[in-house]
Fold this protein.
Amino acid sequence: MMAKFFKYTLVLVLFFIIEKQDCTAQKIELKMLMGEQVLYLDSNYKLGSADSIQITALKFYISDVEFWNNDSLLNTEKKSYHLIDITNPESFFLQFDLPFINAYNQIKFKLGIDSAAHAAGAMSGALDPLNGMYWTWQSGYINSKIEGFYIEQGVKKVFQFHLGGYQNPFNALQELTLKVQSKAILPIAFDLMPFFQLIDLKNRHHIMQPSSEAVLFSRNLKKCFTLK
Amino acid sequence: MFYPEVKMKRLFLFLLICSCFGFVTQSVFNLPIPNGWPKPAYNFKRNPLSPEAVLLGRALFYDPILSKNNTISCASCHSQYNGFTHADHAISHGIYDSIGTRNSPTLMNLAWHKSFMWDGAINHLDMQALAPITHPKEMGERLDSLLVKLNRSKLYKSLVAKAYGDSIVKSEFVLKSISQFLLTLVSANSKYDSVMRHEADFTPQEKKGYVLFKNHCNGCHNEPLFTNLEFENNGLCVDDNLRDLGRFVITKNPLDSFKFKVPALRNIEFSFPYMHDGRFKTISAVLLHYSSPKCKTPSLSNLLKNPIKLSKADRVDLTAFLLCLTDKAFLFNENYSYPKILLLNLPKD
């Protein structure tokens, strides 16, 4: 009788602990934007005066997120990879296995996959090659994939940017630091407009392998993360 | 905020894993490392060998289910009796009889390799299989469609359950088990190995050949793997049709043009034709290449700037030594051949 009672209380206590942790888990919510508008798949967005673009695919990795208070690291989730995919709104909510600490004023993270994971072999989850973010003919993850149409005076042209590369001199991994206000669900905007304003789509519409341009484009992509 | 599902899922998973330990009987084993060999490059901690996973990988290696129209298996281009290269084909051909651009290399002692393909395009053995599976001219399949096919197959569901205690065939299992089978392909029982173990003796001719080999070839094809696993230019003139730039394709460094991964010479007797494009049919043609003037490009190895002086007699001796690298125990090892399990379980759907 006593033993049974203990078992039940144990289960209850466990439940309580699990709930308690969940109440305070840290999350990040990404707001996907194109300039002032919300970014949707296959919608038209004005680019400049006459031309417009449509996004048909947008996927990228965020990894190694760190929460800082000035110079001290409060919390970090090492070796964890988040794949954000415009077709999967759930992926805009980055879930962390970390409690919310109401004291950080800065976050740091990587846009892409670190070189160790690039060469670690087969994995499941976010790093499963099934996600279409792996180059099969030349090993390496695609850090970010942006595809769509560029419409110039009614004529539709395809653009495809598969940005990646982990070996020097074409290491495309980017590190970011954002000053923020700590929140359990931290809102961050991902606005693609600055990326497109920096490139000349007419002349550069395909990047499909590691190169110095892939590095440059990846650097441009950093500018999309803001606190709008 | 309250998201108990996440934690509960994890708890459930944990319990599931615990319960799996109860009835999955994987017997992990270590790859036997031949005496005096270096440490393998492969990280076995992330993929510990088990007989069940090796069998799964072996079945996949021999099964044309990996190709789009179920006609081509890995073994179509890598057959055991010639050291797992493509029998008598200069350039491998795959699905719908398409012709590729390179000669298929031998597959052996891959646990020691740090990169794969003639240009090192693949950085990890686990990821190697993805290249032929998805190549339009090789197996022409998509990874997602392949997983649908495998998840419909009773055979593969049961092999995966035995190897990984999971009811779903996942890409990680497919890739890691193919690696496991490839890792077991160790060739270390040639006459050369017996001599090194003091269990046999070279003939006087083989001995002369061994000396010549150590003088002229060991700089790149060094023992015991008979490759330094680096990329070198051995002075072949570029084929105008293929214009294969080799390692440059990956590094984009002009000094890497025309460099190729140094191939291992074990079982060379049976792995003809030779070189990345299979241009030489015989060992004597290869030796003639090494004793002739080379195509001089900036990346040509210093070791080969001048033709190697090899008389006709030297070439005969060197050939005698190269034949000592034939490993019959490897070429006819039943553990590496077509697994009976594939015969028993047809049809697969």
